[in-house]
Every structure is written in structure tokens, then in C-alpha cells.
Design brief:
There is one protein chain. This protein is an alpha+beta fold. The chain has a single domain, classed as Gcn5-related N-acetyltransferase (GNAT) (Aminopeptidase), CATH 3.40.630.30. It is built from four helices and six strands, in the order H-E-E-E-H-E-H-E-E-H. Strands 1-2-3-4-6-5 form a six-stranded mixed sheet, with helices on one face. It starts with 8 loop residues before the first helix and ends with a helix. Bound molecules: coenzyme A. The site of coenzyme A has 20 residues, from strand 3, helix 2, strand 4 and helix 3.
Length: 147
Amino acid sequence: MGFRFPVTDVMEDRWYDKVLDGNDKSLAYFAIELVKNSRLIGFCSLTDIDYQSSNAQFGIMIGDTKFQGKGVGAEALAHTVEYAFRSLNLHRIYVMVRGTNERAVNLFNQAGFKSEGVMREHYFVNGHYEDVMIMSLLKIDYPSLSK
Ligand SMILES: CC(C)(COP(=O)(O)OP(=O)(O)OC[C@H]1O[C@@H](n2cnc3c(N)ncnc32)[C@H](O)[C@@H]1OP(=O)(O)O)[C@@H](O)C(=O)NCCC(=O)NCCS
């Protein structure tokens, strides 16, 4: 469910510079690296950060598939949630996830996200429409912050 149009090297460089310069306070990107050798295996993000309503959209990608299903996503999500609630003082984190993406839905369920509803046939992919779920986590529902 990412950017749909052709991406040029120039566009990629500009996007990278925008993330690096840190001036856009509506987004926060994190690299996911292996501790042992700093190898980049994915990224996660908070985007559309809204400081009035204190919410943001979460995104994650373990791009190197051999590192999927090993707990990396859960760890990265936990760190990002901590950052969002403790440092940015956000109130709600939401995610849009394809209903067929079982691993992602499980990941968010495990982390305490609740399903808010389904956007029926919202996303067109591979010649058909798919449902997209909206899931969210409120600060008050996040276990480690309620201790
Ligand atoms: C979705 C994604 C981020 C999950 O990260 P991950 O490192 O693979 O997942 P984890 O190993 O941390 O597993 C987290 C939870 O997902 C679930 N899970 C893991 N493997 C699973 C599988 N094969 N099938 C179903 N659920 C699975 C489990 O509930 C697991 O929790 P548990 O370990 O307590 O049982 C990762 O697979 C990914 O990058 N996928 C492609 C991009 C994507 O779909 N991004 C999400 C868009 S919203």
C-alpha cells in the first residue's frame, strides 16, 4: 500500500534528503538494523503526525524477507510505540492494513491494537479489490505505560 507511481533516482534522493534534514515534523522514519553488523533490513515510520489531535499513522516493512517472522517487527513496533507515546506525547497510533495480510494483522493484535473497522474493497491490487482494516492503539491501552 505504498507509493504507486514510478520512482526515479532523483525522487528517491529528494525523499531521502527530506527524511535526513528532519525539518518535516509530520514524519519520523527509523531504520531497522541488525545489532551485530548494522545491516539495514527494514524501516518503520510515523507519518501524518497531527500535533493538535495527537495521532499518527504507523508503517513498517521488513524488506529482507528472511528476517520476517522472527520477532523483529514486534520489537521495532514496540520501540516506535514507546517513542510515539513517551517522546511525542501522542494519544493514538493507527495503521491501515490489508485484510489478507495475516502476519501484519497478528502483529498489531499482539501489540494491543484494536480493529476499528473495514474499508470494503478499498485497495486495488493484482486485478482485484481488497478490504483494508483500520487498527489503532490508544496510549491508555498500552500496557507498559499503564504500569
Ligand atoms: C508485517 C511485518 C512487519 C511483521 O514483522 P515480522 O518481524 O515478520 O513479525 P514478527 O516475527 O515480529 O511477528 C509478530 C507477530 O506476528 C505474528 N506472526 C508471525 N509470523 C506469522 C505468520 N507466519 N503467520 C501469521 N502470523 C504471524 C505472530 O502473532 C507474531 O507474534 P508472536 O511472535 O507473539 O506469535 C513483516 O512481516 C513485514 O515487513 N511484512 C511486509 C510488509 C508489511 O506487510 N508491512 C505491514 C503493512 S501494514
